[in-house]
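Handout, tutorial session.
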Amino acid sequence: MKFVIYLLFSLLLQASNARILTYNLLNYENEPTRNDEFISIIDFIDPDLIVIEEVVSHSGYNNFQSHVLDVYEPNEWLGATFTNQSAQQDIALYYRPDIFSFVSTSTINTASSSGLRDVVEFIMIHESSGIEFRIYGVHLKASSGSSNATERLAEVTILRDYLNELSDGTYFMVVGDFNIYSNSSSSEPAFDMLTGDASDNDGRLFDPIDRIGPWHNNNSYADVHTQSPRTTSFGGGATGGMDDRFDWIFASASILDQGSDMHYIEDTYTAVGNDGNHFNGAINNGSNSSVSDAIADALHDASDHLPVYMDVWFDDLVYTEYGIIITEIMPNPSAVSDSYGEWFEIHNTTDSTIDINGWSIKDGGSDDYYITNTVMFVPIVSGDYFVFSRNGYSELNGGLDVDHEYSGFLLSNSEDEIILLDASGAIVDEVHYASSWDFGSGVSMEIHEYSIENNLEENWHEASLSYGSGDRGTPGSNFEGLMDIEISKTIPSLFELFTPYPNPFNPTTTIRFSSEKFLENSLLQIYNIKGHIVETLLNKSIHPGDHKVKWNAKFLPSGVYFIKFTDGQSFQIQKVVLVK
């Protein structure tokens, strides 16, 4: 059951997301008057990997680490190997070592004259997934005019040729300050060189938000401008107000593919502090709807560029095989309200009892429930159909016999997800249903074959049998209404607990068990669905042979109960249903 729905998991497992940030710091070397602003900005963004431009030599590289990152989060950051370029305004990368590991730094010789900066290649690995990717730090020739545009074209032509040599499907991003004024192929041919279709597209770059057009001094692109957040002259840098998109995170085709093991998370690309309302103005002029006044002031005072980030998802999902599958779902009961009557069913296809205590159920949003009870075991007997419901009382939930009552987890009537995870967080099974699937008001959907993929619409069917108060479904049994519970055989050579008869029962049933040796500490107990002991039927030593115990449940309410037999070291469990 490993049909991966990438959008679902990008929402579900936030630990697999990483925030990539690029930021031109404006001639950063030793900046005690600006460090507090940078700390506030980094704290607000909360990135996991940072590429910075205009850091001056090793001094600036070391000072940003010690005076910004180590103050913001002590001992949480490392820097990639630094390359000190002759242009003096260098490019550096910092990362969280608990999320990434560093492989190498190298330069691509794009600088054709003094004062230009080579592109820096950083190779990184995402720790939990093991995925290798490349980040290219860029700071192209500045200033407008045809000669500068020509130099930028020369720089990116070398870069594009280099990227085209990468293997098909390589994960890479090109980030930084491109100083490109337009997407015009005549005035700024560098942009077409980076993003255009060519005979070799392995190195082609893409804008994750596809906001490409004549952005220079154009109010229609005010929401993506990154320079300049200031209109007054202080501390160097540009002062023209917000009117250009110089700072980008370009992505490879593989990163924009939502089916990739590493991909861009839609709607996360952000020019920090740009609310689209400060065209040709300072970022802190008046109110700013995207950041607080304090952050707007920090962005204004720290640099003449805005930081840009995007979030990336890495497939570090772990699957496990338990033989537990989701077999039936009731998202929209009719006999009672959703808050009482929603339920879903899982099935133990193995020949042994499985304890799901400590497991959890989630959806693609914030719904999350941890499975546990007071006695710290939640057994599913071999062959059992185990029912989870929002309400455990049959008189309220539409006549449902429930094995486990949950909270904090809702089933949408149109589209939702059920993801079952074991205690380590590994995915046991998952189903993502939509309104087109076979279910309606008061009708559950069920699968009829357990060996086929249960995350495909065509393998689900509308239930045809009625239960309880009249809704259609087969909670606690297969689609034909049969319970199909097999005997748990933990250690059959020592003792064996057989299926009670009758089952279901009212109000008495006979419990049979056998032992091949003398058991000094045998214990036979009854548990309700909440894991509470409701009766102890046997607590003594027994001789080898067959044994019977009659259980009379006349004082107990209808519902599901568990019979547990143990010798003090091992145990076996059988499920019974009391129907009155």
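The second record follows below. Compare its token runs with those of the first.
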Amino acid sequence: MDIISQIRSATRQVLQEKFQVMAVEETVLVNETKPEFEGDYTIVLFPFVKTLKQSPETLGKTIGEYLLSQQPDLISDYNTIKGFLNLTVVDSFWISFLNSKYNDTSYGALPKNGKKVMVEYSSPNTNKPLHLGHLRNNFLGWSISEIYKANGYETVKTCIANDRGIHICKSMISWKLYASGATPESTGIKGDHLVGDYYVLFNVEYKKQVDELVKTGMKEEEAEKQAPLMKAAQQMLIDWEKGKPDIIELWQKMNSWVYAGFDETYRRIGSDFDKIYYESNTYILGKKLVLTGLEKNVFYQKEDGSVWIDLTADGLDEKIVQRKDGTAVYITQDIGLAVFKFEEFNCDQSIYVVGDEQNYHFKVLKLICEKLQIPSAENIFHLSYGMVELPTGRMKTREGTVVDADEIIEELVREAAIKTGEQGKTGGFSPEELKSLYEILGLGGLKFFLLRVDPKKRMLFNPEESIDLHGFTATFIQYAYARIQSILRKEAISSSETKSSVPLFALEKKLLINLERYPAVLKQSCQELNPSFVAFYAYNLAKDFNSFYAGHSISKAESDEKKHLRLQIALLSSHVLKHSMALLGIQLPQRM
């Protein structure tokens, strides 16, 4: 039981014994004491003052005196300021905590709870390379999965490859018309980038055709439908769904180029999946479920042959689930995918990590699945996150304004090399070690920058802020960890326990209080699906360690007991920094 839970429990006990009040645990508010007041933890008295008809001072004194007499191994002092009871925890509690945890490399992680959670992330289209927005998606989904795992859940990481549809056909028709047989091998261009180039080219040529038709007097909306390139792409989609051999062969060839490119990027950023689903498979089941929905009157068919669902009674709108030419739309495959996921893994929760521009889509998906009585419907949860924007505005693939993931990674690795060189701290590193260090710092800076922001918020990407030894960055935390490793290499730590009678200085106690909080941070991060709590925690822990180390020597401690205590604190700090940053997918170097 953590310290806050112990204080809550003791407070509930005194309220019951002294006032015959059975307080619900959630009503006992316990916070860390503000720096300007004396104490470690504060009980908020206001919720009980009116009910008990006691003044805050009297109530605070009653609870404080009770805790002093009944919990001497927990509380050593108290003071009441207005409606707040400030408690000082005995030093021996913190030393006992340290002795029990200092060598626990997985401190904070919970045992298995028997529940299973699926997290779907990345979900790229196979007509373009991964971009900056995909990076936030990948880092967020991967981290959420690891945080769930640390909280005792079995996790399943999945990805849906959006490998079919009109967008894929645009790349295919463009390559067929303009590539002259170009391949990744013949051009030296990474496969996903090559295919993406032809997707951009499609939109360039398509715009030209639309403009030409408009010049002849055709309305723009009609020109967009009649442009030869668009009609060719639409026909290719029809031929693909009919299984026309030459179209399928081209599709397989171009997708293979993209997958090879994706795999290279995934390996570099550390994204992995337990299962990859393919829209080219899930849409088939989706179309069958559309027919089932028609039979059950969940869907209805319009005169042109298209199939829809009317959700106006649910406060939404009408939604198409199949086009008039019989081809599937995006939500068709998502319906099939929900069934595939449930049948294969039967998870307690299925989390979709998808940008907030798809909020409406997932409201519709959940409603459709409920109306079709799909067993997994109630377990669907959309983890909606804000888009990543550039100083110049939103990224648009068709206009070629997207920042490719591979390019931004290279930029951050170069930035890490430059800034590390400026610090003059690379002496004694071999070229191979430096290359590895720059990769760790560059990727760490990128991941931390994208994960330190609450997922619900949109964010502006500024690579220059990602690598900074003195800022709110992974680099700052990585340097603190490397410093601890340097200390531990120089000073041997024994397996003996620190005596409970050793007094704690303020900076030692502050660091121990922060370390004790770590399991609660992991729990909150899991409950709110928010890795930024872990990022903030790791940064503040690194700051607290730096303050502690600046204020108290380890090698020249006042006594052997003090030296041992501080080495234990350093070791536990290193374990927690490593564990917390690993949940964000960030490596910590042994030296910098």
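Points raised in discussion: The mean pLDDT is 94.
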